[in-house]
Amino acid sequence: MFVVTVTFILKPGAGDAFMPLMLDNASLSLSREPGCLRFDVCGNQDRPEEIFLYEVYEDEDAFDRHKSTEHFLKFAAEAEPMIKDKTVKTYALVPSGDPR
User: Fold this and answer.
1) What is the separation, in whole angstroms, between the first and last Cα of the chain?
2) Contacts 24+ apart (CB under 8 A), 89-98
3) φ/ψ of residue 33, rounded to 5
4) CA-closest candidate to residue 48, choices 86, 23, 13
5) CB atoms closer than 10 angstroms to residue 8
6) Burial class (CB in 10 A: 0-12, 13-18, 19+), 44
7) Hey, which residues does 83 pair with through a beta bridge?
8) What is the pLDDT of residues 31-45, one digit of tens each?
9) Domains of the chain
10) What is the Cα–Cα distance from 47 to 72, expressed in whole angstroms?
11) Less crowded by CB within 10 Å, the N or C end of the chain?
12) Rounded distance, CA 40 to CA 53, Å?
């Protein structure tokens, strides 16, 4: 499994326009991409400008395919002007038998 986290910091006032785009991208990723296993969109009322994504893919290739889909490219182009900062981190799932 390949895990991706993304933290967006939005420009002031951009949340109302950004969130429908983000939720549509998440929904289409789950319904149209067999390798996308989970796509959670998280927020916090105390930090409305911060949006956190937790995504799980079968493998890194599935994530690479995600980044070339029509719905992702549309989201990226429309959302880019609303984003002040973006941090992407990737992880490999640690097998449950591993004591770490």
Assistant:
1) 17
2) 89/4, 89/5, 89/6, 90/2, 90/3, 90/4, 90/5, 90/60, 90/63, 91/2, 91/3, 91/4, 91/5, 92/1, 92/2, 92/3, 93/1, 93/2, 93/3, 93/56
3) -115, 105
4) 13
5) 23
6) exposed
7) 10
8) 999 999 999 999 999
9) 8-87 (3.30.70.100)
10) 25
11) C
12) 6
Angle at the Cα of 64 (from 62 to 67), degrees rounded to 5?
Answer: 110
What tokens appear for 60 in the block? 């890194």
What six digits make up the tokens of 14?
């951009």
Q: Which amino acid, residue 96?
A: S
Task: Specify whether the CB–CB gap between 77 and 18 falls below 8 A.
Answer: no
Assign 78 a pLDDT band (cuts: 50, 70, 90).
very high
Determine the 3-state secondary structure of 56 from DSSP.
strand
